[in-house]
Amino acid sequence: VVATNVAGSVTSSAAVVTVNTSRIVNLAIRSNLAAGGSLTVGFVVAGSGKPLLVRAVGPGLTAFGVGGVVTDPRLELFDGASRSIGSNDNWGGTAALGAAFTAVGAFGLEAASKDAALVATLQPGSYSVQVSGVAGVMGSALVEVYEVP
Questions:
Q1: CA 17 to CA 5: how far, in whole Å?
Q2: Greater confidence, 34 or 97?
Q3: Which pLDDT score is estimated for 19?
Q4: What average pLDDT does this structure show over 130-147?
Q5: Rounded Cα gap, residues 8 and 55, in angstroms
Q6: DSSP H or E run through 129
């Protein structure tokens, strides 16, 4: 390190500098949706151009012994001004989404499942995801938000 002021410069001896940082790279919330109800989860993005994987899992929970799930969850992503900026009903087993699941360490979903997922690149700001059951279906749902590396 070189420290400089009006009196001159001084060079320090060699040193190891360790910077410890931590951040949340995944948020997951499981809740029960009442008939015709929805679950809204808010989050804030810092930095720039963060790709995020957002999932609404219902049928995929049965592999973990969870019963009474929302059989067809739908997700909708909103910006801080409550404008819809993306949505998904059935993720469809696309290769790009499957690769995102693997990249973040998320459990896989069956390609034909009615679970919902999307990847969106978000700028700094407030966001929310709203999950509802298609046709007002009720039950347990898992909302997940992952930072994609």
A1: 22
A2: 97
A3: 72
A4: 94
A5: 57
A6: strand 125-133
**pLDDT mean across residues, the chain:** 92
The residue length of the chain stands at: 149
Kind of pairing between the strands at 38-45 and 125-133: antiparallel
Contact partners, residue 74, CB within 8 Å, separation at least 6: 56, 87, 88, 89, 116, 131, 132, 133, 134
C-alpha closest to that of 57 among 113, 111, 122:
113
pTM above 0.90, yes or no: no
How far apart CA 131 and CA 33 sit, in angstroms, is 9
Residue type, 28: A
pLDDT tens digit string along 85-95?
999 999 999 99
Report d(CA 144, CA 27) in Å as an integer.
6
Gap between the Cα atoms of 77 and 48, Å rounded: 18
Q: Give dist(CA 59, CA 14) in Å, integer.
A: 56
Within 10 A of 13 (CB to CB), how many other CB atoms are there?
5
What would the two tokens of residue 98 be?
A: 């499957």
